[in-house]
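Collaborator request log, item 7. Partner lab (contact: R.S.) asked for a structural prediction of General stress protein to inform their binding assays.
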Amino acid sequence: MNSVLDPSSNNTVNTSEETKPAEQPRPRRPRGFAAMDRNKVSEIASKGGKAAHAAGTAHQFTSEEARDAGRKGGVAPHVRRGRGPRKPTVATPSSNDVSSEGAKPV
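Returned to partner:
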């Protein structure tokens, strides 16, 4: 007979662990800038931008740089996931092509 279901079994079970409720994880509280008032964050960012321009270290994108950055941004997530950059779409082979049978679509 199953010793767990047998009341005459000599095995003792620690019931204090079974009756203890599971501890609820504390909710995460925002830290840093996320905990600050939006106006305060904006004020700090504004001071940083002004300081960078005054020091001559601020950067303003040209339209060509912005275009290039946008292109890279569209490719970068695929590289991080290990799938590589997007490949241009190519025409699908005809249905009578024997070499394409069983191949996974790209």
